[in-house]
Amino acid sequence: MHKKVIGKTIQATIIHIIVALCFTGAIVLSIYLFYGAKIEETISLVSKVAIEKQKQQIQETIITEENGMENYPEYGTQYATIEIPRIGVNLPVYFGDTLEILKLGIGHSSTSYFPGEGGSIIYMGHNSKNVFRRFSELQLNDLITVKTTYGEYTYKIYDMQLIKETEVEKLPIQKQKEILMVYTCYPFNNIGYATQRYVVYAELQK
């Protein structure tokens, strides 16, 4: 008789637990059905805020440690001037390298880095009278200054080379050292299309 009572008690307890679990499940399901979309929206918003905050922190780190740029310039806009005292150059620098941009001043290859980022920077300009006609007068150790909207950078020429337009390996893109490569068409007094380029290589001065 005693065993039957214990058995019934255990059975009743199990039933109560099952009922409680079902009741709890029903409540959770009801909440999800009524508020599920809002809950998911809230979770998504929280996740988005966290991701954006992380991206902002990364962006701030890059800005602080690399070049102080808040935003990269839009393609086709001026963001700097280049000064080369030896040949009397003081010209605007535009982000991009189309023919239309080169009519305005110096072009910055969109495949290269920006001043202050610690990598290869490629500038180019016509060999016209008001641009790089006097390029041949440049000498080793001459200084080139680039004044951007976010800082000023000075480079010293350490090499000069005459290359073919197809020798893209002579304009390497790398991130180990900040090198400014500036080129124009050769011969300097050439009229029309030229297949050679005269390049000066300059290293950032700390």
The helix/strand class is alpha+beta
CATH names the topology of the largest domain as Sortase, Chain: A
Q: In the CATH hierarchy, what is the superfamily of the largest domain?
A: Sortase
**Morphology:** rod-shaped
The biggest beta sheet, please? 8 strands, mixed, barrel
Number of helices: 2
Terminal CA distance reads: 96 Å
- CATH 2nd-level architecture of the largest domain: Beta Barrel
Taken as a percent bin, the fraction of beta residues is 25-35%
Task: Supply the number of structural domains.
Answer: 2
- Spans of at least 5 consecutive residues whose pLDDT stays below 50 are 42-66
CATH class of the largest domain, named Mainly Beta
Biggest sheet strand order reads 1-2-3-4-7-8-6-5
Question: Total strand count, please?
Answer: 8
User: What would you report as the Rg, rounded to the nearest angstrom?
Assistant: 33 Å
Rounded mean pLDDT is 80
Order of helical and strand elements: HEEHEEEEEE
Helix content: 25-40%
Task: Describe the secondary structure blueprint for this structure.
Elements (H helix, E strand, L loop, with lengths): L1 H66 L10 E7 L4 E7 L3 H6 L1 E3 L11 E5 L18 E6 L3 E13 L14 E8 L9 E9 L2
Parallel strand pairs: 2-3, 4-7
Antiparallel strand pairs: 1-2, 1-5, 3-4, 5-6, 6-8, 7-8
